[in-house]
């Protein structure tokens, strides 16, 4: 089944479904993209697929356009991938160029869906279209990045990202200065402006936990450098009330209905 098939006996699946349901072509396309249409028993999600007159095309009895709700994907971005806005500035602050780095969008697909995802959502091709990202993460960093089709969530992240607390685990090297941890929590400046109080604590001998709002590109590396430390790796594990949790690196899960940023 392909658009390239020029056999006059083949027609577009959307046209076939529209004829069977006596509905509009656009509605037929939505049913197909919603995963409600089977050709010879196999789900077909491409409205432009070509079918023969003798092929069985079935639309599920419980098909409903009300179920075609937008989704939000939570990706565990590995280092080396671009994600979101302001990437070049963030990468430059980490001493690494992002030019030529692959987009984290390329990691989103059915094969990289976390098998243990608790959300009861069937993975569909349409879930990877028209995604927006307002949670940028520098190319060298790893961790939680949010991609959404939901306009309400997009607006929430776009308008409130400055006030949402973000939690990061930062691996460092070097010897911290006297009272360095206290200074990280309060007393440093960035880009000429005093920083507000920040929650910083040791996780172990080489890892610091930062919990802060209004984070700026390059802020954490600059703070660490000010107290004698060098950032080796940075991983974001939470945005607002939504954690990265157990999503493996390079995989993603769906945001569940009860989860709120």
Q: For this structure, what is the CATH class of the largest domain?
A: Alpha Beta
Mean of all residue-level pLDDT scores? 87
Outline: elongated
Name of the CATH homologous superfamily of the largest domain: Pseudouridine synthase I, catalytic domain, N-terminal subdomain
Q: What letter string, H or E per element, gives the SSE order?
A: EHHEEEEEHEHEHEEEEHEEE
Tell me the major beta sheet: 8 strands, mixed
Number of strands: 15
Unreliable segments (pLDDT under 50, ≥5 consecutive)?
A: 86-98
User: Structural class, please?
Assistant: alpha+beta
Please bin the fraction of helical residues: 10-25%
- Residue fraction in strands: 15-25%
Query: Under CATH, the topology of the largest domain is which?
Result: Alpha-Beta Plaits
The N- to C-terminal Cα distance equals 42 Å
Oligomer: single chain
CATH architecture of the largest domain: 2-Layer Sandwich
The rounded Rg comes to 23 Å
Total number of distinct structural domains: 3
How would you describe what is shown here?
The chain is α+β, with helices and mostly antiparallel strands and 261 residues long. The chain folds into three domains: 11-66, Roll (Structural Genomics Hypothetical 15.5 Kd Protein In mrcA-pckA Intergenic Region, Chain A); 69-163, Pseudouridine synthase I, catalytic domain, N-terminal subdomain (Alpha-Beta Plaits); 165-239, Alpha-Beta Plaits (2-Layer Sandwich), CATH 3.30.70.1560. It has helices at 13-21, 25-33, 87-93, 151-160, 180-185, 219-226, and strands at residues 11-12, 37-39, 42-43, 50-51, 57-59, 72-77, 142-148, 166-174, 189-190, 193-194, 199-202, 207-212, 229-239, 242-243, 252-254. Strands 6, 7, 8, 11, 12, 13, 14 and 15 form an eight-stranded mixed sheet that branches. Strands 3-2-5 form a three-stranded antiparallel sheet. Strands 1-4 form a two-stranded antiparallel ribbon. The longest helix is centred in the middle third of the chain and has 10 residues, at 151-160. It is elongated, with a radius of gyration of 23 Å.
């Amino acid at each position: 089944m392909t658009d390239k098939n020029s056999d006059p006996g083949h027609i577009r699946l959307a046209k076939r479904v529209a004829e069977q349901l006596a509905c509009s072509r656009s509605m037929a396309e939505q049913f197909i993209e919603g995963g409600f249409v089977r050709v010879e028993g196999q789900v077909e999600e491409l409205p432009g697929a070509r079918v023969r007159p003798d092929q069985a095309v079935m639309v599920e009895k419980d098909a409903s356009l009300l179920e075609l709700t937008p989704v939000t994907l939570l990706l565990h971005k590995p280092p080396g991938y671009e994600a979101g806005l302001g990437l070049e500035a963030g990468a430059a602050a980490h001493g690494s160029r992002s030019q030529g780095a692959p987009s984290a969008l390329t990691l989103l697909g059915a094969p990289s869906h976390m098998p243990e995802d608790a959300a009861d959502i069937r993975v569909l091709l349409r879930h990877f279209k028209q995604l927006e990202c307002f949670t940028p993460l520098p190319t060298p960093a790893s961790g939680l990045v949010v991609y959404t089709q939901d306009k309400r969530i997009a607006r929430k992240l776009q308008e409130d990202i400055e006030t949402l607390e973000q939690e990061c685990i930062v691996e460092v090297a070097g010897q911290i200065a006297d009272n360095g941890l206290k200074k990280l929590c309060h007393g440093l400046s960035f880009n000429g402006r005093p920083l507000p109080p920040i929650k910083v604590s040791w996780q172990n001998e080489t890892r610091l936990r930062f919990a802060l709002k209004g984070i700026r590109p390059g802020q954490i590396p600059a703070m660490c450098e000010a107290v004698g430390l060098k950032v080796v790796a940075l991983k974001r594990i939470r945005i607002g009330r939504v954690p990265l949790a157990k999503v493996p690196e390079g995989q993603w899960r769906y945001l569940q209905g009860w989860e709120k940023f």
